[in-house]
Amino acid sequence: MMTMHQLIAKLSVSKTSIYEWIKTSGFPAPYKFGSASRWKESEVNDWIEARRNAA
Q1: How many domains are contained in the chain?
Q2: How far apart are CA 35 and CA 19, in angstroms?
Q3: What residues form DSSP beta bridges with 36?
Q4: Of the candidates 14, 20, 15, which has an alpha carbon nearest to the alpha carbon of residue 37?
Q5: How does DSSP assign 6-41, residue by residue?
Q6: Closest by CA position to 43, among listed 24, 30, 55, 25
Q7: Sign of torsion over alpha carbons 10, 41, 17, 54
Q8: Interatomic CA distance for residues 38 and 32, integer angstroms
Q9: In this structure, what DSSP letter does residue 13 have?
Q10: What single Pfam family name could you report for this chain, choosing any that match (predicted)?
């Protein structure tokens, strides 16, 4: 499970961009653990691969 900081580092984008992608580009929504948000790395990698294949 990835944190927001790990996503920002992996994708080289802002937190705002990630939440915009969730709304508009099918980026995986986070899993909530209390107030913490976490993303499955496999889902993020699948999204990245799908974007590469679509280009």
Answers
A1: 1
A2: 16
A3: 33
A4: 15
A5: HHHHHHT--HHHHHHHHHHS-PPPPEEETTEEEB-H
A6: 30
A7: positive
A8: 6
A9: -
A10: Phage_AlpA
